[in-house]
């Protein structure tokens, strides 16, 4: 937890493990013993105490334990790592796929252009694709993929990470993230690594699990669903990671996001040893990027300074160079034009979809129906993209938003139809698409 607090992209919300009437009572003792063994501090609460801090929970609480916990913004955490690496002379190329490895030479496609690079050591950290990548050098690495789906509800229905206190299963977790509540997750073996669907059964299951724990969610708007693949080595219950050392080809696979810094430390130390570097990895002791005092941002960003710091952490200092452009672009998430420009120029963005993941424009209630156009206009006005590029990016961005809305629209068909009409009819974008692609 101490190391976690070094990372500004983690919001230490605290957490609760809660069981409800009908749950297996014997699990409580196992949970307490497990926490004792792992040295995890827990604080038992009465159901009244639990409801006082989380009033939207189902009042049918049997047992509740307070724990240290937090919520991470995985997009900005990844960007902060990449930014820090670049400050330390790393070169980063997004949208690149390694297609061939011959000795020290790697061939890859970058935006469909073929490129080559030479490396003394190659690290394979390609998640569920680690087995496929290892095949390029004739090695066999066994990694299984498990799909996880998450529902996104409008507004915060809880303030802490709420876990179901029962034998770990699916639909166990509800957590606050920015202006939304996430309900997760499923855990389903998946063979197709390139294209997988969010099934209606998954959405229905997660909705029911969410309603059972937090009845208020029935009244909240379900904004969208998204899914990802977990890389699993060995048994799914352990979520351990494996470091394989094959000469100049190292593979790190499995684990979880919570273990990523430890995994990176092991890889860093192994690479250093192979290269004859005597330094030791300092990732557990240092902030990812510098140290910015939030109150210093108050002068620059006025009332927005807290939101800016929560969003960009220590990168907020770098955003100040763009502070003169402060037109509000996204009303749901409060994103301003300076953030769009900063992300576009400095945070490894190639398109509006990338910018959305860094800034959160289009991730709120309206799902980008207005701000997508505003963001494209901001880039166009600064000559970052031309008009044709702006239109293609708008289309791609809205298509991606729509993909996450479709699995959950059943109950909100009228709202969805209004969204579709706005996406398609503003500027006749459905027609423009055909003209541009012709
Ligand atoms: C729904 C869900 C919920 C989760 N919740 C949690 C949680 O609460 N706590 C937690 O700790 N963990 C959680 N996880 C697990 C965690 O997200 C994963 O363990 C973690 O993201 C894996 O990171 P990774 O870098 O190994 O793989 P990835 O994040 O998949 O990254 C692999 C990268 O390799 C790239 N790649 C693949 N092939 C190539 C190639 N040939 N050339 C170049 N690049 C390539 C891919 O494009 C990708 O960017 C969750 C996962 C899911 C799906």
Characterise the protein shown here:
The chain is an alpha+beta fold and 438 residues long. Among the domains are: 4-72 and 144-232, D-Amino Acid Oxidase, subunit A, domain 2 (D-Amino Acid Oxidase, Chain A, domain 2), CATH 3.30.9; 324-437, no CATH class. It is built from 15 helices and 17 strands. It has helices spanning 26-38, 47-53, 74-87, 130-135, 200-213, 260-275, 298-301, 305-312, 316-319, 337-346, 352-359, 371-381, 387-405, 413-425, 429-437, and strands at residues 10-11, 15-20, 42-45, 61-67, 71-72, 96-102, 105-110, 113-118, 122-124, 144-154, 161-164, 173-177, 180-184, 188-189, 222-232, 241-246, 249-254. Strands 2, 3, 4, 10, 11, 12, 13, 14 and 15 form a nine-stranded mixed sheet that branches. Strands 6-7-8 form a three-stranded antiparallel sheet, with no helix packed on it. Strands 9-17-16 form a three-stranded mixed sheet. It binds flavin-adenine dinucleotide (FAD). Residues 96-98, 125-129, 133, 148, 150, 184-185, 228-231, 255-258 line the site of flavin-adenine dinucleotide.
Quote the distance from N terminus to C terminus. Answer: 54 Å
How many distinct helices?
15
Corresponding CATH architecture of the domain at 4-72 and 144-232: 2-Layer Sandwich
Say which molecules are bound, naming each kind only once.
flavin-adenine dinucleotide
Q: Label the overall shape.
A: globular
Q: What low-confidence regions span 5 or more consecutive residues with pLDDT below 50?
A: none
CATH class of the domain at 4-72 and 144-232: Alpha Beta
Main structural class: alpha+beta
Question: What's the count of strands?
Answer: 17
Q: Give the DSSP E fraction (strand runs of 2 or more residues).
A: 15-25%
Helix fraction by DSSP (H/I, runs of at least 4):
25-40%
Biggest sheet statistics: 9 strands, mixed
CATH topology name of the domain at 4-72 and 144-232:
D-Amino Acid Oxidase, Chain A, domain 2
Mean pLDDT: 90
CATH superfamily label of the domain at 4-72 and 144-232: D-Amino Acid Oxidase, subunit A, domain 2
The quaternary structure here is: single chain
Q: Over the alpha carbons, how many angstroms does the gyration radius reach?
A: 23 Å
